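Forgive a beginner's question, but would it be possible to get a protein, spelled out as residues, together with the matching structure tokens, please?
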Amino acid sequence: MNYKDFMQELNSEIKNVYLLCGTENFYIDKAREKIFERLAVDKSEIVTFDCAEKISTAEIISAIDSAPLFNPQNVVLVKNAPYFGAEGKSDRLAEVLEYMQPTNFVIFISKSADKRKKLYKIISRVGAVLEAEPLRPWQLDDWLNDKLKSIGKVMTPDARKYFMERAGLLQEISLWYFENELDKVALAIKSREITVEHLERLLTELPEVSNFALVDAIDARKPKTAIKILRMQLRDRNKFPLVTTILVRHVRQLLRAKYFIAKGVKGRGLAEPLELNPFIAQKVAEKSASYSPKLLEKIFIELADADFKLKTGRAGIEILERIVIKLAARL
């Protein structure tokens, strides 16, 4: 189940077995702490295993199935659990989880999980599974509303727009990053209302921006966003060749897509000639529709010239800025 449903269920009842799986550590950390809170367990009393180290399954099973001695309950935390992937299998563990002692509790943490696995099905039936998948920028609104409520703040419409634009520069959202940033803003200002000025002054630099963010902004006809991303990526001059390569590759793909479409090749049929995954090939074809062949050919030549001048020190970031503006504005 998703994070919101998982946390709501935790408020009403506690299960003996939990699986927290996925790559969004913010959700996993919050869910784990909530489980400990509901169990009213001291962290020093939790038996913890990290399967990234050499831990035997027999040792873990023994801990899970042991009766509590000096405490009213036995709580076991298993990090990096390997039991839910391709190699994961243990009939004895499955039996223990199926018939857990009422005084015993176990929390498994795993980066991924196969829903077809026997252990996954057992935990889904007798316990609960959190699927902690990263949010995309367009999914951030509900999280932001909850966060603002928790810190007793509101955002002006312009501030919310500014915040979302920053988030939109990222391919994946880091909720811990935004959590810490908003906590910092809340501590720094006395007013209940957060303004654009507050965010511009207090927010730190974004974490690494995805290489795909630049071409996504160009394809979306957002020159201002594209220039902002370009400048962020080129703070390190060593990244000039990488950024140029990304632009050249994208323009070449768009040109090739237009060529094959003109020859009558359509949709996922473009996968083979473009040497791309069918889904990606279809997306490239859709994006190519907004570009003229003349513009793409002109930009391709300009990129070759820019690459030479950048490598020989005859130009700076401004040469790529002009190219990005022409592409994004379709000039």
The two ends are 47 Å apart (CA to CA). The chain has 16 helices and seven strands. The mean pLDDT is 88.
